[in-house]
Design brief:
The protein has helices at residues 7-27, 37-50, 121-139, 148-160; strands spanning 54-55, 71-75, 78-80, 94-103, 106-115, 164-165, 171-173, 180-184, 199-203, 206-208, 214-216, 223-225, 231-233, 236-240, 245-247. With 254 residues, the chain is α+β, with helices and mostly antiparallel strands. It has a single domain, classed as Alpha-Beta Complex (Creatine Amidinohydrolase). The protein has a five-stranded antiparallel beta sheet with strand order 8-7-9-14-15. Strands 1, 2, 4 and 5 form a four-stranded antiparallel beta sheet that branches. A three-stranded antiparallel beta sheet has the order 3-12-11, with no helix packed on it. α3 (121-139) runs antiparallel to α4. The longest helix has 21 residues, at 7-27. Bound molecules: magnesium ion (MG) (2 copies). Residues 109, 171-172, 202, 204, 235 line the site of one magnesium ion.
Length: 254
């Protein structure tokens, strides 16, 4: 069931999104070679609490194996849901961050992939293509049109550049819960409802240098590419209005 949001609810979700993007603006300069990913986790958790929010990801998932952190940090061949650890970021790493904030019951969700120091030109191209996939997807998100247009836009652009598109994980409705209907796949499949004013969704292309196939590590969370090649991930939360679409999170690259 798709929950349409009213103007007041979208106001609340927007405020949550702006807070999350403000966090990223402060966090991004700290993500550099030599930094341990657990330091990023500690910084993030404290920042969100000080700002009066709650980290949505912390404790999310099955009771037997809840997500242990407030931010996902996925490096190189890690696609999503990477766990902060004592691992240090190295020059040339592609570091994907994904975080969400609950602010007064309103949920935001945003992911960015950051280049640590100087990365290879192939990694930079993958990263910028993934970011462009996100904007192509957003360009296809319009009231009155079918949802899978988003997936077609994302997949089509990624494939035109020779990349693999992750099909086992997808975007989603968001705003009152972290994961709501509808699912927003990056490769078209499944339900294809007409979008309408009041949709609040997270579009999140995960694009791989090689195959789009992924697998989950034994920790039960970390998703890695099946062929070990790098992956990038960009995500915005957006609101669809009757006559326009509003990106609620801000792009840290401007
Ligand atoms: Mg996310
Ligand atoms: Mg998401």
């Amino acid at each position: 069931m798709i929950r349409l949001k009213n103007e007041k609810q979208i106001d609340g979700i927007r405020t949550s999104c702006k807070l999350l993007s403000a966090m990223y603006r402060e966090l991004i300069p700290l993500v550099k070679p030599g930094v341990q990913t657990v330091e990023i986790e500690k910084w993030t958790r404290e920042w969100i609490r000080k700002a009066g929010g709650k980290p949505v990801f912390l404790g999310y998932g099955p009771k037997s194996n809840p997500f242990p952190a407030s931010i996902c940090i996925s490096i190189n061949e890690e696609v999503i849901h990477g766990l902060p650890s004592r691992r240090r970021i190295k020059e040339g790493d592609l570091v994907s961050l994904d975080c969400g904030i609950n602010l007064g019951g309103f949920i935001s969700d945003q992911a960015v992939s950051l280049e640590a120091g100087k990365v290879g030109s192939d990694i930079h191209a993958l990263n910028m293509t993934t970011r462009e996939c996100l904007y192509r997807g957003i360009g296809a998100a319009k009231a009155g049109d079918r949802l899978l247009q988003i997936s077609r836009a994302v997949e089509g652009y990624a494939r035109s550049r020779g990349y693999g598109v992750v099909h086992q994980f997808c975007g989603h409705g968001v705003g009152l819960d972290l994961h709501e209907d509808p699912q927003i796949p990056n490769v078209p499949h499944g339900p294809n409802p007409r979008m309408a004013g009041g949709f609040v969704i997270a579009i999140e292309p995960m694009i791989n240098m090689g195959t789009g196939d992924v697998q989950v590590l034994p920790d039960g969370w970390t998703v890695v590419t099946a062929d070990g090649l790098p992956s990038a991930h960009w995500e915005h939360t957006l609101a669809i209005w009757k006559d326009h679409t509003e990106i609620l999170t801000d792009d840290p690259l401007g």
